[in-house]
Design goal:
Blueprint (H helix, E strand, L loop, with lengths): L12 H20 L5 H6 L1 H19 L2 H27 L6 H20 L9 H19 L1 H8 L3 H23 L4 H6 L1
Helix pairs in contact: 1-3, 3-4, 3-5, 4-5, 5-6, 6-8
Length: about 190
């Protein structure tokens, strides 16, 4: 990690930006989701899609180039916001076009394994299991989402609820990843 003019470690926006985005997504969802109004539910998708792209940017920063990963986030955030806005607009006219939103959700989970394969190096070996578990739990969450009602009929708990639990496990793996990559030491704490 690079340091400032006084020798203190610099905070990386990717390192600290992701947990903040997760907190914002949880905060916004806690207010918006209970209303269950269609137009409101659309807006709670924006923070979580930003989290998907933050994960892609963080992975690119770690594997390819730190500067590229940070720069990649800037154009991706308007794309994810646009995907939700497009979906909302097409819902209001009766078409419900989810193609761009689907791309925003699934592209990072396809691109990250590709980045791991293309830019693998021995130093990545330590974070590889965590990245794999993040993708696995994301897939599990999507399966729970896809089979929401059949799961509810079978066990009495909705797939939607289980999806959120799987997403929480994914977030836990993110925290583990950041702790492994950027361990907090006494000097780091004093520098902040």
């Amino acid at each position: 990690m690079s340091s400032d003019s006084k020798g203190r470690p610099k905070k990386l926006s990717i390192q600290y930006g992701f947990p903040q985005k997760v907190q914002k997504a949880l905060f916004l969802a806690s207010f918006i989701r209970p209303t269950l109004k269609r137009r409101m539910v659309d807006w709670d998708r924006i923070p979580i899609t930003i989290v998907f792209m933050s994960f892609l940017s963080a992975t690119a920063a770690e594997l390819v180039n730190r500067r590229l990963g940070i720069r990649l986030l800037r154009p991706l955030v308007p794309v994810v916001i646009g995907s939700v806005l497009w979906w909302h607009y097409t819902e209001t006219i009766g078409r419900g076009d989810l193609r761009l939103y689907g791309w925003v959700q699934f592209y990072p989970m396809l691109a990250i394994p590709l980045l791991l394969w293309l830019y693998y190096r021995p130093a990545v070996k330590t974070i590889l299991p965590i990245l794999v578990w993040i993708v696995v739990w994301y897939v599990i969450a999507k399966v729970f989402e896809a089979f929401d009602f059949p799961i509810y009929r079978a066990i009495g708990v909705s797939g939607h609820t289980l999806k959120h639990l799987a997403a929480a496990v994914t977030t836990w793996y993110f925290v583990m990843l950041f702790r492994k990559q950027y361990p907090v030491t006494a000097t780091t704490v004093q520098a902040t």
